[in-house]
Amino acid sequence: MKQFEPVIGLEVHVELLTKTKLFCRCGTTFGKEPNVQVCPICLGLPGHRPSLNRSAVEYAIKASLALNCEITEYTTFDRKNYFYCDLPKGYQISQFFYPTGTNGYVDINVHGEERRIRVRQIHIEEDTGKLLHQGEIVDSADSEVDFNRAGIPLIEIVTQPDVRSAEEARAFLQKLRTILLYTEISDCKMEEGSMRCDANVSLRPAGTEPLGQKTEVKNMNSFRSVQRGIEYEIDRQEALLQKGLQVAPETRHWDENKGITKAMRSKFLASDYRCFPDPNVIPLFIDKSWVSHIQKELPELPESRFARLVGLGLPAYDAELITSSKELADFYDSAYEHYKDAKALSNWIMGDFMRLLKAGNLGVNESKLTPDNLAGLLSLVDKGTISGKIGKEVFEEMFTSGKKAQEIVSEKGLEQISDSGELEKVIDSIIAAHPGPVEDFRNGKTQTIGFLVGQVMKETRGKANPQAVNQILTEKLQ
Ligand code: ADP
Ligand code: MG
Ligand code: ZN
């Protein structure tokens, strides 16, 4: 048994997909040239008058409901005071006293074990600007600052210290991202910084309750680095504790290239920020009817969708994969409306469809294949109009051209040949052309029939109905 048990709590920042910022009407587009989405309000110039973005609150409520939180009835927007060069006002506005959501949870499954990670709170806050460093050294003379991001609405999701390993942290984040993508409140792109995760890590002697001293690890920009960063930090703390040394309360920076965490600054205490409600932003009462309206508009979330697909007869593996993305699950559902063989449908979607999407680096809705066209193709295969093999060819063409299966089949004359008269002609010619295998068959080496069927398929360019060929050929040989 391990001597120490890791205890981890996560703080996840997610940028909301509102068109405008939290307190002004500046745009929120990612990747614009620096300092073009700014105004006196988000630059914090003297005399600025912020006014709250209703959509941002609505999105935060939506996320909170999706994560099983209770919604506050009253809230203020509070100034959290600190100085940094990416923070022009000298304070960040955040729901410090009354978070939008509290007491939620996310269930994860790691190696078959169900774990519930409690969400302590979800609050709204503004994003900061961004420092652009020329060199390695933070705060070096050649740093520049871009305020396009300043004032973009974020929610911060804070978990209880319920996570017990780096792997669980990763699974939590992935599940969180899937749920949030379903609600469409954020695009949750870790590589673009619209989803960012800080990890609080501590160790305690295995089997004991009290929490150990934690550090906070920042700057992990992918699921993989979150896992690596936490693993590193656990090992580092373990080595200290085993030597009888103490873990310092500090914020540490994950260095992706070196694969280590480095001390960045000692920990700020909440009281250091001197928080108080911003006198320019009026307190907000959140109406119960507004909340229930938002609740009604929530889409079916991954877990209930998974259960519903399993109910249609899909194996858990398929249902998990298909519900891992809302777009894919929507695609599946629309196709299923027209074609009711749940498993055949998931085979085509998980196989050919996913393969072609991946090869073309495309999103689910970026191919030309529509759900009802896919359903049409599968019906043609079922009816025997085309063979499964030809179906795959037709599929590829539907994927790039957007044509209906029947259209492609007629244009190219791909209908399966089941007509026995037509097949007999081909079969006779194949028998005549291959006396050796025919002889072998008649001498009891019946497996040579496979070769002969293959020749017929080749001759008909895959269009012959293989069952019919098999039957006619057997009769003729016998
Ligand atoms: P701080 O005031 O230092 O930011 P909080 O109590 O606000 O600490 O908690 C911040 C995050 O750290 C939460 O996700 C919480 O679950 C987690 N956390 C708190 N204490 C510990 C600990 N001892 N070990 C690991 N995580 C912790
Ligand atoms: Mg904190
Ligand atoms: Zn602005």
Q: List the ligand species.
A: adenosine-5'-diphosphate, magnesium ion, zinc ion
Helix count? 15
Radius of gyration: 30 Å
Largest beta-sheet details? 9 strands, mixed
Total separate domains: 3
Q: Show unreliable segments.
A: none
Distinctive features:
478 residues; alpha+beta; Arc Repressor Mutant, subunit A; 3 domains; nine-stranded mixed β-sheet; 15 helices; 20% strand; binds adenosine-5'-diphosphate; binds magnesium ion; binds zinc ion
Question: What does this entry look like structurally?
Answer:
The model has no long low-confidence stretch (mean pLDDT 93). This protein is of the alpha+beta class and 478 residues long. The protein has helices at 54-66, 166-183, 223-242, 288-297, 302-311, 316-323, 326-338, 342-359, 371-383, 388-401, 405-412, 420-433, 435-442, 448-459, 466-477, and strands at 4-15, 70-71, 74-75, 78-81, 91-94, 101-110, 113-126, 130-133, 143-146, 153-159, 195-205, 215-220, 250-255, 260-266, 276-277, 284-285. It is built from 15 helices and 16 strands. The protein is 40% helix and 20% strand. The chain has three domains: 4-290, no CATH class; 300-412, no CATH class; 420-477, Orthogonal Bundle (Arc Repressor Mutant, subunit A). It has a nine-stranded mixed β-sheet. Bound molecules: adenosine-5'-diphosphate, magnesium ion (MG) and zinc ion. Zinc ion binds at residues 21, 24, 26, 38-39, 41-42, 151.
